[in-house]
Amino acid sequence: METKIKIICLFLLISIGTCIMPQKASAQGVTVSFQVFYDELSPYGTWIDTDEYGYVWVPDVASGFTPYSTNGYWVFTNEGWTWISNYSWGWAPFHYGRWYTDPQYGPMWVPDNEWGPGWVTWRRSEGYYGWAPIGPGVSISIAYGNSYYVPNNQWTFVRNRDFGRRNINNYYVNNSNNITIINNSTVINNTRVDKSRNVTYNSGPDRIEVEKRVGKKFTPVSIRESSKPGQNLNKNQLQIFRPQVQKNVSNGQKPAPSKVENISNVKTTVQRTAESQQQKAKPPVKQQPTQQQHPTQPLKQQPSQQQHPAQPVKQQPSQQQHPAQPVKQQPSQQQHPAQPVKQQPSQQQHPAQPVKQQPTQQQHPTQPVKQQPSQQQRPAQPVKQQPSQQQHPAQPVKQQPSQQQRPAQPVKQQPSQQQRPAQPVKQQPSQPQPQPQPNKPPKK
What we know:
Largest sheet: 4 strands, antiparallel
């Protein structure tokens, strides 16, 4: 029985080993051609065919993009300082091939088959670290020789205390100081040889030196092979796709992009700058809906402004006390019916508004009614002033056209007023009692 159990355990161990070993071998020994670059990078840029470098990739990025500077940072791994790009396609152009800058179209990437943590040349000076992309066809031995030259504006420098930050792009030194820093700097020649890939690269500044200048320790991040294109940094582990790339294919089929554009169809840096400025100008358009609330406020304020005409209406009784008195004095003025008949048409335009406002102003008429007796003692003066005050009604007559925009309402209300002629008849008997008082003074 024990022998059977041992046999079963041994069989399980062998089966597990056979399952694990091929996975490791396949992960470390994946071999691809340049076709993987052509296929995986096509959605993120444009491939063009050049006479000097062959197929070259132009990334679809905003103006100001700089390789090994924009949207990324350096992390110390077991293979040296490795560039971690925040672009989803960063696993390829920053670890394979070389970058160069076209004066009209900006940075372009030329594929190659060697993997490295970052194909840049390093420099140090008193208080600064700097790096710059290595151009196409330039080996490490040439890049760190005295004859190799990189334009001053392509260097990126940071103060040594800021090196190793995850948000290092916020600490770049203005490139106007590059000439001074470069003239006082020396090359960092810290080369390594990857025997498994037969690749020589520069691992960047010494970690112990950086820790002294920065004032903190850097735990090396381990690199793990990924089975599909991409990269992911989680805690102290970087999973990245870095297969063995062959330049020549044995089956004779030459790799090529599925779509190759003419360079004249590629957007220049000037065009990309103009597009980025147009995109910055769009936020005010999105803010307009928040500004559309302001027109609603004046609409809400209009009722508060409509109260102002109501106030002159309330003030009009103080000014209209004279016309109000002749209204009650109409029995004495009924001897001249022709005048009120002529005045009534001009006053028939106003009753439409007081008819609506009377419900809110019905409390105030009682006050002028009480004040009228004190003013009814002098009926003769308002009667004489009425001709002079009839000139003022001409002004509201001119203002009435602005109020005549709502003639339909008084027209509809006039029939409603004509249906109740009995009300003014009933009110007149209540008003004839104060009328004899103003009639008695003229008799005296």
